[in-house]
Design brief:
16 helices; 2 domains; disordered C terminus; alpha/beta; GMP Synthetase, Chain A, domain 3; four-stranded mixed β-sheet
């Protein structure tokens, strides 16, 4: 018995060694290779003619799988989603389901017109993970988006992972998974926000002889966080651009870390890192229980690192001016956000929900006409920004000059 077991182990080791040494010569079906490593999928629905599903696929081959050169766009179209999935399965001899996906890209037109079909399909899919992250692709279908970003030198999946998990990026604070989107879609007013990606020109440039060759080739692209798509009644209706997302997060008390950039009267650019922020919303009613005013009291604490400054910026005289400039900038951004909310009739700041918690009886009286009431109510915005701590290495230079 032991001899048979030993022979079996030796034979197995020999076959494994032989296969490994000749792995490049062993024929592997292309269908299998193309589906070895898939993290991202896109969906476009153009009713009633076409359903389109796209995959970023690549060979899982060590470091090579981290290069876009070994990735490709695999796209299949049909007249229904189920037929599309059947068609995908007919083109590969490997079972393909959605359980392995980490990112889903939703084409802009699909988000505007057919988000319900997307939700219906994925909410019923037995293999889908509810924690899969979802994004809207700005100004294009998800298929076109994938086609463009695969021309980049920057690895697509690594870029997506950075946007979602890098705590220093605003995009990581606004991520939404499939469960979040279903909650938005099935809520009473179907109002919420979904992060948006946009194609950008790649910052990676070739040099020397490669640069001449690149001039004749297709322009290379990458992608970045564009902002937040506003969902109202289950459809994409507008966007909050990236420059306003910071203030949106401050208002919803979900901001973790970011910066405020300001330019003072001397033209000096200063960057202040936000350490803490808070927002308190209160309401004023008249004697007839009519909502007169919504008050936003926002307090922000910032730090300032002056180690790279060319001169001493944070003098006692200048600190108050810089605090005021920061307050004015944040207040201006909040005014823009409120204007977008009023214009779209989408209470994505959940001001009505806050009123319901603070004044449930008054909310019960006015909730049916809330959108019109909110649109016409006066908004008072009070923003206070204070520099709490700063690092000033210029003090050594000042002391040196005084000694001289």
């Amino acid at each position: 018995m032991r001899i048979k077991t030993l022979k079996f182990i030796i034979l197995g080791a020999f076959l494994f060694s032989f296969a490994y040494m000749n792995k490049d010569k062993i024929p592997i079906p292309e269908e299998l290779k193309s589906f070895d490593f898939i993290l991202s999928s896109g969906i476009d629905i153009d009713l009633p003619e076409e359903f389109s599903i796209s995959y970023i696929s690549s060979e899982e081959n060590g470091e090579d799988s981290k290069s876009n050169e070994n990735k490709n766009l695999f796209n299949v179209k049909s007249n229904t989603l189920n037929k599309t999935m059947e068609k995908i399965q007919s083109l590969t001899n490997k079972s393909l389901n959605d359980s392995h996906l980490e990112y889903i890209l939703i084409g802009e037109n699909t988000a505007k017109e057919n988000l319900g079909y997307f939700i219906d399909y994925y909410s019923k899919s037995p293999s889908i993970r509810l924690d899969v992250n979802a994004f809207i692709t700005k100004d294009m279908t998800s298929e076109k988006f994938i086609e463009k970003i695969l021309t980049s030198k920057i690895d697509v999946n690594a870029r997506l992972n950075g946007l979602v998990n890098n705590k220093n990026q605003l995009s990581s604070m606004t991520k939404k998974n499939l469960k979040d989107i279903m909650q938005i879609f099935y809520s009473k007013d179907k109002t919420g926000l979904i992060p948006v990606l946009a194609v950008e020109e790649s910052p990676v440039k070739k040099t020397g002889d490669d640069e001449k060759e690149d001039e004749e080739s297709e322009e290379k692209y990458t992608f970045g966080f564009y902002g937040l798509g506003i969902i109202k009644d289950g459809k994409l209706i507008d966007y909050i651009p990236c420059r306003l997302v910071r203030s949106y997060l401050i208002m919803t008390k979900t901001l973790k870390t970011t910066d405020i950039e300001i330019t003072d009267e001397n033209g000096d650019l200063s960057v202040f890192s936000i350490q803490n922020s808070g927002n308190k919303i209160s309401f004023e009613f008249d004697k007839s229980d009519k909502l007169e005013k919504i008050i936003f009291d926002i307090n922000i604490e910032t730090n300032y690192d002056e180690t790279t400054a060319k001169r001493n910026i944070l003098t006692d005289e200048n600190i108050e001016k810089l605090n005021k400039l920061q307050s004015v900038q944040i207040k201006s951004e909040i005014e823009e956000i409120l204007e977008i909310s009023r214009k779209t009739n989408a209470d994505f700041l959940e001001i009505g929900e806050t009123l319901n918690i603070q004044r449930p009886y008054k909310w019960h009286i006015i909730k049916d006409g809330w959108q019109d009431i909110f649109k016409n109510a006066e908004c008072e915005i009070n923003v206070t920004v204070k520099v709490k701590r700063y690092f000033n290495t210029n003090i050594n230079n000042i002391n040196s000059e005084m000694k001289k």
